[in-house]
Amino acid sequence: MTPIETLPAIRAALFVKNLSQIDYYFNPDFDRMIDEVNDLCGLIARLPSIDNVRLYFDVIDQWISGSRMPSARLNPKSWKRQLTRLLEIILDKSCTQLNLIGGMRFSQVYLPDNDTSLADNVVQPQRTNSRLSRTKSVYCQRLRSFGKTSKPNEGKTCGNFSKSRKNILPGATNTASTSNVTSLTRGDQGRVCGKVIKEARFLPSIQIHSDMLLQVPFQAWTLETLQISSSSITILSLISGSTPSVSWKNLLRSIFLPNLVELELCANLARLTKGAKFEDLEDFFDRHSTIQTLQLFGVELPDFSTSPNLPSLSHSVTLPNLVRVTAHPAYVEWILRAVSLDENALPDLVSISIASDYYWTSIPFNYDTFDSALALIAVFPRDVTLGLRFFSQPEQGIQAWFEKQVQEANRGNGRPHASNRIIKIVISGAWYVPLDKDMLVAIAQWLREFPQLVQLEFKEQPQDFREALKQAGFVEEVTKTCPKLQGFIFNGVQHTWDSWLRGGFII
User: Fold this and answer.
1) Closest Cα partner for 299 from 330, 260, 334?
2) Confidence band (pLDDT; 50, 70, 90) for 500?
């Protein structure tokens, strides 16, 4: 845990005027967290600019969900005013990358609007006698008081921060690699709930990995912020653990990001509910044909049995500029159906990754759903990278699925997944899904189906993965069946077969 005096001391250090990046983990309890928000307001308000800010509420989440549930409660309206003031200060300092992570437990400690029974134990974000001022040393109190003073034209600190917004000059070059970029000018306007937004912001990248900002009482602010920056956003990442479908609908159908290039959307981490609905995602994709990189998890799946929704040659292809996609096999199949009708569709697509859902229940993922998606990838008309990502807990079914593919090939069942177009395979998984010896034996045999394979990569694997490779005889098997494969990549490090053997991992 960060020492309680750290942030006030940095805030009071007036020589700290040029910071390009801030990463901050907020600390419990609520009193301290609110004081830290105030101190960050004061610190960032006097900076001329800030490029990259990451705010983490993970520690607060752990504290809330711990064995001792905090008795204090937050007034959601006051907490919204306090946190959004900090976020507005950050954005008005020309921040180009804003990441907010955590906050999924905050809804458990909000005081209901009509509940006054807890009023005596409610933490109000704006208060005069804070716990921090009572517990800090006299020296730290003086530091804090000194830090609140400001020179002319430096701007006031959080408590009296001016509500007027600084115009953000959008002259910076767009980092997106797209040929059709809508220009952002000072006169750009957006509209949210009938309100005209006149001030455009330049915010190329935004990551909101937080239930808190995607739900009441923050959702309206989040929507407005996305609209204000809509013309400049090229990278958007939204991850939530329990945001309801109606909230996703309001968000996905209300925003338009004309230059969006990368989208990551995880609507329900544990897949306990449907998350964002397919029809809302389809509507969003139809309006964002600029997307080149897509990662999609924990959302409602397309149901081909009741709504085939096959794209026709006369209908525009979904996400025609797609370059890389990682998604549940049902979405991979939905996207690739266009290629089955027109081999010239999706001309830029070079990487297709099939991912299992992030289950954290006793119900195993059905890996047979990989089959139909893999069959379409196998007949893809151009060279492509195949990715397999395993997230389900427990991991039962992964080894059985690989073994089933090998058995079908040995029985001569048409080798439905063999492909001469798959030139690279990337296998990855969460830390709790290890690739053990038996699984690697099955994978080595499965790789025989890809004779043109020139690259193989294992990502996010523990160091004892080396020993599992040795025990499985993996290198010896693969060198026989994949003649064009000269080595592999392990957690980002390239190894040739010779260098791997010289390392003593194969006897």
Assistant:
1) 330
2) confident
